[in-house]
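Human: Cast an eye over this sequence-structure pair and say how the chain folds.
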Amino acid sequence: MLQDRYTLAFRLYPYQRSADQDAPAPVRHPVVVGGCGPIGLAMALDLGRQGIPVLVLDDHEGIGMGSRAICFSKRALEIADRYGCGEAMLDKGVVWNVGKVFHDDRQVFEFNLLPEQGHKFPAFINLQQPYFERFLFEQIEAERARGAPIEIRGRNRIDAVEDMGDHVVLTVTTPDGPYTLEAQWLMACDGANSPIRAMLGLDFEGRVFQDSFLIADIKMTSASFPTERWFWFEPWFKSGASTLLHRQPDDVWRVDFQIGWDVDRKEEMKPENIRRRLDAMLGADVEYEIVWSSIYTFQCRRMRRFTHGRVIFAGDSAHQVSPFGARGANSGMQDIDNLGWKLGLVITGQAPEALVDSYNEERVHGADENILNSTRATDFITPKSKTSHIYRNAVLDLAETLPFARSLVNSGRLSVPCTYDGLSLNGPDQLPGGPARSRTGSACPDAPLGESFLLDRLGNGFVILTIDAEAPDSIEEDGIAARRLALTVKEDPTGALAARYLGAARSAVYLIRPDQHVAARWEKYDDAALRAALRKACGKD
């Protein structure tokens, strides 16, 4: 019998015997997702909304306790909003744009991650991972009520995987014993310790940093801290070599203490020792309740490839980074955003299987960018030599008064969407004077359009975005349709649309992919060029 080995925050998909367990031969599913965390749920939503049947298998019956990921970026919220649950997350989450950096007992500087106006979502919200997962699950339930072919099976643990070339054979263990099923495609969304990865004999490449960090989530109602990200280097309260503070919903606060490599983890996890560190930071008279705690180490690693035949890896099963910078779940959401439309076109026969390989190309590129930023942050936060420690503290001293030094301070450069510069799906970038932020390969920046926003109007599918330019209302090229969204600069009196999409140009034509990345752009509509770019974006050239 399977045993549920962790406490559930929400028991959402209790075990039920399925017809597959009684079938005379293994039933084949178009897509099976292994793992029902945020990345697995997002994968199910993306495919199910396209009408593609998807089966999610999880070894538990719901969402586990512990806040785990808490910082969700603007880009992750925009993706969730396209799935239908971004606004619910925003309503529940704690919004923040401002961060402050301290050294010892003084503030070095502060920063604003989104100083400009005209965006539907803030730079970040803090929202405990169980809530984030629940909103995704509730959206799945809403989509299922509208006919989306999504099924979730709790206490169905994948115990063996065999890639047969054109499909995958899975052995699944349940409380009623094992059964076998088949998948045309298997999505491995089963976390950093991915059993699926181990079953295939695959592993990570990269660095494990020799340091330890203690997380304590505490509930306190009398806190005087503002809703900002506060990071201390060598804090005056001596609770760790560095400390990070974040506010979460429900009067819960996240505290991270850097406690060193050579520590007794069992001893450090004792409540009285966690309280000793917290009391030194907060003051012995502050009342609080410890609601969750854990110890982790930094890891900046990834698989060499994210695609292996009919098995595709996403999220933490494919790559790991340090939590400073909020690049874990946020980069996983970008994985699904990138893969969902591609796999959908392949399964429906509208694109060649080679399009799936572009997921590997683009998201390995994104993982390498995240690993680079995360490694730089880790090296700055945890100096490895006396010389690097002296350099780090000199930078902090200079940053207090000299703006140039602030760009050198790295307490975890925070997640921003990846730009797929120079990669194979990109079409031409022929917009003279066009803004760099909306260049080919970039994620579309949002902009206000009266009572709505640009990303809402783009929606799903391929879009021909025209700004003060002529173009057909729609085109179809080799079975792929693209509809036109026609705008003028007059629709946005704030000037944000023009600044973010025209720059010095007087007009613009953009081809936007279903994941709202720019596939190509021009000053005027060119039918042959746009059709060629559409074919290229679908992996057909």
Remarks:
- Residues 1-6 have pLDDT under 50 and may be disordered.
